[in-house]
């Protein structure tokens, strides 16, 4: 990813929670490697959060566990440290709780994103924008053979976003003339959108949204994630932008300026 | 399709049965347009088969109905006319019956092909050849939104051919770590091979066979049929080759010389 | 295309210029077939433009020739008829002339679009939006073998839009380590963006924009136009929307509300 | 890759030349990891070839340099060790020299393969087989942005194989109506076949052969190599099979039993 780093003389002081985990350790490397960020604290299970304050962290990145992330976020808000959160397990109730903390700290800021892949987020956003112009849409996602769930979280969320956009545009259900089908042939139904999950050794993480109309136009938005580090540009974008967005931001989309 | 027409001075005399049907009428146009064939009889429902003999037909193309095709084939065999058959409804019992007729007419020849798309047949053949070299394989087929069955006949047959090739090579089941899935997400199971059916306005007839191995190699064989006339080159190939293959030939594969 | 037609009791009265041409005749059929439009005049070479006024046309669609289109547009502006123009040959000088006419007729409106394919326009727009987030981008366009120019106008325009977006974001040139290349292997250079043109019998009109970044994310935006009628939804959108946009509108993009 | 290892009680004794190189070190790991092979010698620059004999190597794998590989192969032939060679730089003159050595050692065997990717070799073979059935064919290859040559060696070889197959079938030149083109738009010409080279950060090694005919059939054979280890299954196949093929074998194709 190549959006320019903001020109500045001061490095952003970053703390990482879950620093020994798979994602957290990647974040540490990324923060150390970027020209405008500095790793000042790398904490994991058992380390005291006060280490973040002692180190003067301005932004904290949290890739921990659903069971501890809320305490971490509250600590950051109370101590004026911006938080970039990739830990899963957030629902509307949790978002409300975070908003409550932020109400008492108007200049604090929290970014919670279910997906830090800039390409993945763009492809979801484009699928949502295009949805109302086409009669139908289906999703094919392809992942490595060790994945235990189907469809992927990204595919399910893409389907939901598309279904909402179609409903807002009054699009009606997608056409489907199938009368005879083998069980499973037509994929899973997520909010009325068909999703097909391929599991294949050699694949990594791939998704295709296919939109079509009877007049013969097909639009395909494909995203390929060729390795795990492809989430780091999004994390870095979050670190750079979070402090300029007081309050709670959900998802990377608002930071992409689309 | 561009395989050269055999150089010859005499035109092949062709009769068409089902000449008013969608496929039959295309065959008539194709036979009239090709440089080495001549349309001598175009019969449909109610016309007497003796018209084929009167016209001196050397090869008959049959795109009729399962209910009448056997009578047509028997007439051709008895009268020394080679038959190229695209009508559906053939099973092993019917093939045995045809072989019985042919036993009494050693120089007669019948070609029955479930698919005259040369590209479709090639892609099935390549998928079969490649199957044993990859840990896993899945099929994605995409058709227009008016198709009533899923998966397509071609996809089901491709899956069966792949499963046979894997069994012969001792490949074992394809890997699948899925433990949590929405109903249908992982597609239909055809002989142990997963098949995904997309239905989309604007599409015509498309199929992708994706093969992968854990070491990171992916092989994809994709076939697109952009309109109905794409079956005609295969029919023409059948017309040209059927007489040089006495007896019963099933499928276009033997004529492709792979 | 399925965006809903605005609910209204009155039909839009449409005139077509170039009504006997390939595109114009399609427009006539489309206008006659749509539930909210009515064909009131179908003029071609030699017909007097006053026929548009006599017929009470509210919107005129022009698919004529570069040599006559300017006169047509001026006539429409002078007579208070909105114009939807698909004729090629517009440059900045022509746009200035049109703006001059419109200055004297503040409620008049003209839409000039180089491409009425909604999917094509969306894919250009998405490519433009995504450009600044990726280190590199190339374009592959595939068309039927009778096309005489390469690259296609759409591909060239897409490259230019991408180059502009990258320049605005300060992206720098795309990386390219090639030191030894066969002539032409790396495609054409359009404003610094590589464009590859495939010409293939069986293809119709297809384009892929591939964006990649070194961290392993690839985003592909593919558009397939399976037949010529795929431009009609965009023409219909223009007919419906042009009168609500006084002045000159260039391109379909503003009407898509992205 | 999953073709079963032959059941046997004895391990194949393997020596590796160029054992410290990028490919050689991968081969060492692969030989040590496979259930039916044993690494008995790992030699590099400066080590005496007699080490192969001392270690009782039955098969030697050579990933060295064009300047030394001929000496290595001669040593193997003279000492009754089968050779599997991936080093580049072989031409017909070198093959003749190897055949000369083998003439004096009828039971010796040498396999020289320019590409050990089983999927890549299959895709070349399928492209060659399909070539004569389609009016036209073009190749698109996509590699990472650090690649210095264009087109890739595999793409150039694929084009040559296709051109030969078309010539043998009397196919004539591919159709191309282009009269106006930007320099490079139509790709490089390799034996009359157009080849397009995309260079993109995030890509690894990918190739698409697209075949089309005017009747609307498109066949696409795509190969993706997602990482470097994807060559090892082919090397292992060579190790297992080379001794059963006395004389010189060029390319992996004969071992795939297509």
UniProtKB/TrEMBL annotation, chains A, B, C, D:
It catalyses: (S)-2,3,4,5-tetrahydrodipicolinate + NAD(+) + H2O = (2S,4S)-4-hydroxy-2,3,4,5-tetrahydrodipicolinate + NADH + H(+); (S)-2,3,4,5-tetrahydrodipicolinate + NADP(+) + H2O = (2S,4S)-4-hydroxy-2,3,4,5-tetrahydrodipicolinate + NADPH + H(+). NAD(+) binds at residues 18-23, 45, 86-88, 113-116. GO terms for biological process: diaminopimelate biosynthetic process; lysine biosynthetic process via diaminopimelate. Its main location: cytoplasm. (S)-2,3,4,5-tetrahydrodipicolinate binds at residues 144, 153-154. It is found in: Cytoplasm. Pathway: Amino-acid biosynthesis; L-lysine biosynthesis via DAP pathway; (S)-tetrahydrodipicolinate from L-aspartate: step 4/4. Residues 119-253 form the Dihydrodipicolinate reductase C-terminal domain. Signal peptide: none annotated. GO terms for molecular function: 4-hydroxy-tetrahydrodipicolinate reductase; NAD binding; NADP binding; oxidoreductase activity, acting on CH or CH2 groups, NAD or NADP as acceptor. GO terms for cellular component: cytosol. The active site is at residues 143, 147. Residues 12-116 form the Dihydrodipicolinate reductase N-terminal domain. Keywords: Amino-acid biosynthesis, Cytoplasm, Diaminopimelate biosynthesis, Lysine biosynthesis, NAD, NADP, Oxidoreductase. It is an enzyme of class 1 (oxidoreductase). InterPro entries: DapB_C, DapB_N, DapB_N_CS, DHDPR_bac, NAD(P)-bd_dom_sf. It comes from the Bacteria. Pfam families: DapB_C, DapB_N. Its EC number is 1.17.1.8. Homotetramer. Catalyzes the conversion of 4-hydroxy-tetrahydrodipicolinate (HTPA) to tetrahydrodipicolinate. NCBIfam families: dapB. PANTHER family: 4-HYDROXY-TETRAHYDRODIPICOLINATE REDUCTASE 1, CHLOROPLASTIC-RELATED, DIHYDRODIPICOLINATE REDUCTASE. This is 4-hydroxy-tetrahydrodipicolinate reductase.
